[in-house]
Amino acid sequence: MGLFNGYLKPGPGIRKDAPPKPPLVAFFETVGRKYSELFRLNLMNAVLSIPLIFILFSIYVQNFMNPEASAEARVITYSFYMVFAIVIFVIVGFAPVQTGTSYLLTQYSIENPTFFLYDFFQSIKKNIKQALVIMVVDLVFGYLMLVNYNFYTADLMPVPALKYPVVIFGVIYVMMHMYMYPLMFTYEIKTVDIFKKSFLLAILNLPQNLGILLLVAIIPFAALMYPSIISYLILFLAAVPFMQLMVNFYVNRVIKKYIRPEESDEQKEEEEAVAVMSDEIPENNL
């Protein structure tokens, strides 16, 4: 009798007809199982996204840093801008890098095996043209949003309420980015259709999208209420990768609902939404 014979018997395995785990349970199991990879991915994403970090820092210095303001006002402005910057980093990102990051996060959320560095850079390589187009559009859009916001919030502006449509349009554009990258690497789809379908998904699922966006904002806001070295470490080393996975976990289920609906009588009520999004899009077998 071998020493380990008792341990070599096959286990019961997973039943083929086993019901799917509740999304919340599956999410936290993925966090626990993949946290070391999420941590590494977050660090690599931050290093490769230095151009985005530099742009966000420059916007703060040139538009929101006011040495003449009181210390309390400066702290409030800094805290709100940091929340904004983290939301941009988590959801919008630096498009070429975010393509690889989103690909790995999507594979984690659907429990597909991955080769960390190979899959990351292969996704960037295969989708680089569309990612660069998105990056250019992001830069132009961001510049126009900043100019319009500063214009409509100026002291001499007779109708300051006009800033709200700018903010609403900006929020919708940020929500579109939750879907842009998964659509890009999952389907063979034109860049203009990426923007079109991302906009439709942002509007069709608006309440849930706003809820996810609010969560991504609340988590750093809570950490910044008591600023310290520990809170910053928790925020950037733990909370940011947690939020990135949370967004992709949610997005994968939305795409499955609207673009890859399972054949089920329970989904007939979604027929109208599926009709909007069900153009025949060949899958990109990356």
Task: Write structural notes for this entry.
With 286 residues, this protein is mostly helical. It has helices spanning 23-48, 50-64, 71-92, 95-109, 116-126, 128-152, 163-186, 191-204, 206-224, 229-258, 271-277. The protein is globular, with a radius of gyration of 21 Å.
Write the layout of secondary structure elements.
Blueprint (H helix, E strand, L loop, with lengths): L22 H26 L1 H15 L6 H22 L2 H15 L6 H11 L1 H25 L10 H24 L4 H14 L1 H19 L4 H30 L12 H7 L9
Helix pairs in contact: 1-4, 1-10, 2-3, 3-9, 4-5, 4-7, 4-10, 6-7, 7-8, 7-10, 9-10
Features:
286 residues, mainly alpha, 11 helices
Supply the number of helical segments: 11
Instruction: Tell me the helix content.
Output: over 70%
Average residue-wise pLDDT: 82
User: Which radius of gyration do the C-alpha atoms yield?
Assistant: 21 Å
Ranges where pLDDT stays below 50 over 5 or more residues in a row are 262-272
Largest beta-sheet characterization:
none
The portion of residues forming beta strands comes to: under 5%
Oligomeric nature of the chains: single chain
**Total domain count:** 1
Query: Structural class of the helices, strands and pairings?
Result: mainly alpha
**How many beta-strand segments?**
0
Global outline? globular
**Topology order in helix (H) and strand (E) letters:** HHHHHHHHHHH
What is the CA-CA span between the terminal residues? 47 Å
